[in-house]
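Quarterly update, task 2.4: zinc ion-bound model.
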Amino acid sequence: MADPIKARADELAPTIVGWRRDLHRQPELGFEETKTAAYVKERLDELELEVHTGIAETGMAAILRAKDPEGPGVLLRADMDGLPLTEVEGREYGSRIEGRMHACGHDGHMSMLLGAATILSERRDELKRDVLFCFQPGEEGYGGGEKMIQQGVLDLIEIGSAYALHLWSPCEAGTVHVRPGPMMAAQDSFAARVIGKGGHAATPHVTRDPIVAAAHAVTALQTIVARNVDPVAPAVVSVGLLHAGTVSNIIPDDAMLEGTLRSFDPDVREMLKRRAAEVIEYAAQANGCRSEFELKSGYPATVNDPAAVDKVRRLAAPVFGEDNVIEPQPMAPAEDFSYFLQERPGAFILVGAGNRERGITAPHHSPEFDIDESVLPRGSELFARLALDAEGV
Ligand SMILES: [Zn+2]
Ligand SMILES: [Zn+2]
């Protein structure tokens, strides 16, 4: 006989896909997810859950109480925001809004979590712990996760562990990817101004050329990873913006450079921030200039709890097949579920959503991005199993 949770997830598949498509058509940016929030709330109200809205502006959380809880509750999280992109034309379920697109799969995350909420509401009698369904706004660089925690989402009920799924188009549908320890990188960025003294390009000796200084800085920044980071510890330093000057015969007064820093280890992270500032300043000084350095601290590394990962592996095996539960290398993108995992043990899990045969291969954050929707009920099933299984974290 088919497993009842799997069977119910399969039965719900058209509904879950329908939710995904509704949400896909109306993407909204971080902290602007008002229509999205209203849509999600309507579904949660249908399940008669206790819904708390307005946590971190457009965020919300819904409580499903176990009749007789035996331990602290579990938090399951989906993020809600789209991206400032225009989707490729020709998709029936494509975005209806120019310049807005669910290009990271967060529409799928919400529908998977709504599917799990449906399954779990029907199985409330079997629950051994309370469940908090967390719908988080502003994941794409807005820090919505941190804001929800600051506004008390972890105090709505006693929370013992936290899990999130992320659809992942680079990996094939039918696979799931999770590792203990660092899973996604810490992300910081910097903006630096190299300040010199402008003048005629034919008389450089009476100027202090910020372009030469900035060029030295860009090259020197690459030595941080090569010379300061332990070769077995991954790290990235990339300059993504370099801007100076107006025409060929003027040396400008200053040059701007901006870049991103990625790391997995907290000590490496601190070192990257410190060295980036030093290297730019010294490169500036070596060329008669000075610098102003501004650091923008981003998301910390997303670090999975080993016991939670063991649990995910055990529960994902019947959903995806044992051979399809894969341990990936740490990945350089950042994810603000990291804030939840700083507060509670848990795991951030990637669910393969690509399908090479069907041409679903476009990367996240691209106008061609899409998912293989057949994985959505499997995600709901995994979420539901994580809540129903009261063993360990
Ligand atoms: Zn994204
Ligand atoms: Zn995302």
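Highlight for this quarter: Residues 186-297 form a domain with the Alpha-Beta Plaits fold (CATH 3.30.70.360).
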